[in-house]
């Protein structure tokens, strides 16, 4: 792993509905956030694909929003965490991606996932059970890869039968330069390595929880693409930066309690713990700039990630608060974190000599 | 409407500077040529499943698959490593009256194709390539599961006995039992080769028999071993070519199996970055191992033919 490459940041957004505000407002907010992220040199904007209001997500068509975001920014890559591949025809998706690559002049960063919400699959008449979903996921990726060469091809598979076709517009660079797979299982993580893609891991776990998929990913990447293959590894974190630790907890606390009460394993019969306990349990990064930078540096050191994916807003947090937090993140946390990570790596290198 | 006729594949033995060279060919007898070079330890037989599709997809093309010296049905030639096989190929194509050609190389054949393409640029120094002063001209290069990088080549050259189907080489080398053990040695060869096929690929016994034919007598193994050793002692030439990959501006296509046990996609990616004429995309074949010509012959033929049909 290159020791002195700075960590790259990604702005990730589920564009969640809150307070019954119109969709136009929530979409406008994401453009304000991404413009800010672009000014701080973030690597990418990742939008999650949610259908039918799942998890309060407002973005059902992330590629359209990504294109709009690209037209409003200068350098930042745009794309997804994650596009739910089994819900799309791989060839239609390949056309969209190739068009998007053209229109954004190569500013793409696309994560593919195999999906997690059964009712979204039901809505699109796609099989959700793992035995069919996973082989279909892999086959869909193989179809996209073959189409992506721009050559005429046909495909006779278990899930897709495609007559002689050719992808137009013809792609100009390999998919693996900007594609990612979202995974938590070792099997899918290994597939990301095998295809030479980056690996996106979800938020909400402690550093050691990611060790198994990261190990599988690295082994597969090395075996297939060699020891010098560029490694792209991202983990997501919900982040709120206040002026100091106490203010941060006071400002973000209520929304974090609400986040907890809407999360999967919530038990109504037990009282909701206080914010500081929840921050620890849900692995949020919340505090003043100093604390946030320290936590980020420690997390980067523990996992070896190349990208930290920042979620700056969640249900219950006001857009104004998220913008203020994001400003502090860019101005105060990023330089501090970079210094800490640099020092840590220099010490690590010196320790090896 | 004419009734489609089955592809005619011609097998012929030519005399090249006093030594027999065996050639399988199809398509026309003039026009641009497509030359298919096999690798270790096979022969032009490796391409048999691709030939009919290639002939059909490339009307007007001469499709020629020779057995490299010491392989299949071609006679051995002293010193036949990558350093000399470019000259050998030039002589062969001159004899056949080829004036322009595309070259496909798999495994060792890929190394021959790659080093010859570099030598043809005239940037290597030393004796100029004979094609600099005329004769058959190389127009397009296609590489399939091969390498030019020293790490795997030196391993193959110095330690052939760790690689199937050479795993039994040291034993066979002793030549115990003489001609009486020819069948055992052929069986050993087939067992080793089978390990290199993708799951589900079927090669019939009669097909194996043609592959294994030279590997009954000790002489066949001795030839294979000598060919591997040539990779080690001709390393200086190969390294010079490696340093000049940046001079390869001719259109180049990389076709690779998703799972080649010898040359992973990492090698294709290095070549793609090193060769200026390489296409931006590697063509990855799913469900194929070291011999995609056996595992996915239609796909191999399609990817070759498409590249030759594209206007440039």
UniProtKB/TrEMBL annotation, chain B:
Name the domain of life this protein comes from.
Bacteria
Keyword annotations from UniProtKB, A to Z: Hydrolase
Taking the record's annotation, the residue ranges forming a coiled coil are none
Where does the AB hydrolase-1 domain start and stop, copy by copy?
A: 34-302
Q: What cellular-component terms does GO give this entry?
A: membrane
Which terms in the Gene Ontology molecular function aspect does this entry carry?
Answer: hydrolase activity
Q: What is this protein called?
A: Hydrolase, alpha/beta fold family
- Originating organism: uncultured Thermomicrobiales bacterium
Q: What is the lineage of its organism?
A: Bacteria, Pseudomonadati, Thermomicrobiota, Thermomicrobia, Thermomicrobiales
């Amino acid at each position: 792993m290159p020791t002195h490459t700075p960590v790259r940041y990604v702005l990730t957004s589920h564009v969640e509905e809150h307070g019954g505000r119109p969709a136009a407002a929530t979409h406008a907010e994401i453009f304000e956030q991404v413009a800010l992220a672009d000014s701080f040199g973030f690597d990418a904007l990742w939008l999650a694909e949610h259908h039918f209001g799942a998890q309060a997500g407002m973005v059902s068509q992330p590629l359209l929003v990504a294109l709009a975001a690209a037209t409003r920014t200068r350098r930042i890559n745009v794309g997804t965490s994650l596009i739910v591949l089994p819900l799309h025809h791989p060839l239609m998706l390949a056309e969209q991606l190739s068009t998007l690559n053209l229109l954004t002049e190569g500013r793409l960063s696309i994560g593919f996932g195999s999906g997690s919400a059964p009712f979204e699959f039901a809505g699109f008449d796609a099989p959700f059970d793992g035995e069919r979903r996973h082989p279909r996921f892999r086959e869909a990726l193989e179809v996209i890869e073959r189409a992506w060469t721009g050559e005429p091809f046909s495909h006779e598979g278990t899930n897709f039968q495609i007559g002689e076709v050719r992808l137009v517009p013809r792609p100009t660079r390999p998919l693996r330069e900007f594609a990612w797979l979202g995974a938590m299982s070792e099997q899918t993580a290994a597939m990301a390595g095998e295809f030479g893609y980056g690996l996106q891991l979800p938020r909400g776990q402690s550093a050691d929880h990611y060790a198994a998929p990261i190990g599988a990913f690295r082994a597969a990447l090395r075996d297939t693409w060699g020891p010098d293959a560029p490694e792209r590894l991202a983990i997501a974190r919900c982040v709120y930066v206040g002026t100091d630790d106490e203010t941060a907890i006071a400002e973000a606390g209520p929304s974090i309690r609400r986040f907890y009460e809407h999360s999967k394993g919530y038990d109504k019969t037990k009282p909701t713990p206080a914010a500081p306990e929840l921050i620890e349990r849900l692995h949020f990064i919340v505090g003043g700039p100093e604390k946030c930078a320290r936590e980020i540096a420690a997390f980067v050191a523990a996992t070896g990630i190349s990208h930290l994916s920042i979620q700056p807003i969640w249900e219950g947090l006001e857009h104004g608060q998220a913008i203020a937090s994001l400003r502090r993140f860019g101005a105060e946390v990023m330089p501090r974190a970079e210094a800490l990570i640099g020092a840590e790596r220099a010490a690590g290198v010196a320790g090896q000599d | 409407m004419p009734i489609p006729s089955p592809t005619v594949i011609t097998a012929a033995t030519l005399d090249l500077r006093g030594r027999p060279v065996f050639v399988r060919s199809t398509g026309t007898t003039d026009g641009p040529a497509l030359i298919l070079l096999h690798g270790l330890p096979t022969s032009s037989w490796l391409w048999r499943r691709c030939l009919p599709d290639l002939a059909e997809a490339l009307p007007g093309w001469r499709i020629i698959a020779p057995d490299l010296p010491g392989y299949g049905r071609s006679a051995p030639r002293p010193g036949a490593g990558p350093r000399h096989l470019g000259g050998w190929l030039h002589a062969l194509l001159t004899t056949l009256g080829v004036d322009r050609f595309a070259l496909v190389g798999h495994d060792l054949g890929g190394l021959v194709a790659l080093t010859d393409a570099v030598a043809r640029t005239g940037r290597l120094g030393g004796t100029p390539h004979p094609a600099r002063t005329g004769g058959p001209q190389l127009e397009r290069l296609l590489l399939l599961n091969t390498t030019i990088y020293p790490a795997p080549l030196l391993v193959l050259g110095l330690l052939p006995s760790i690689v199937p189907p050479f795993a039994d080489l040291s034993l066979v080398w002793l030549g115990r039992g003489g001609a009486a053990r020819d069948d055992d040695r052929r069986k050993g060869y087939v067992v080793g080769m089978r390990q290199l096929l993708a799951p589900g690929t079927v090669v019939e016994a009669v097909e194996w028999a043609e592959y294994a034919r030279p590997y009954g007598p000790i002489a066949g193994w001795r030839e294979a071993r000598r060919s591997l050793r040539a990779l080690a002692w001709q390393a200086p030439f190969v390294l010079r070519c490696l340093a000049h990959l940046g001079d390869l501006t001719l259109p180049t296509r990389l076709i690779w199996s998703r799972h080649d046990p010898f040359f992973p996609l990492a090698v294709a990616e290095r070549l793609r970055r090193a060769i200026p004429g390489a296409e931006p995309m590697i063509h990855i074949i799913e469900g194929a191992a070291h011999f995609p010509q056996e595992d996915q012959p239609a796909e191999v033929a399609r990817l070759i033919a498409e590249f030759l049909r594209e206007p440039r």
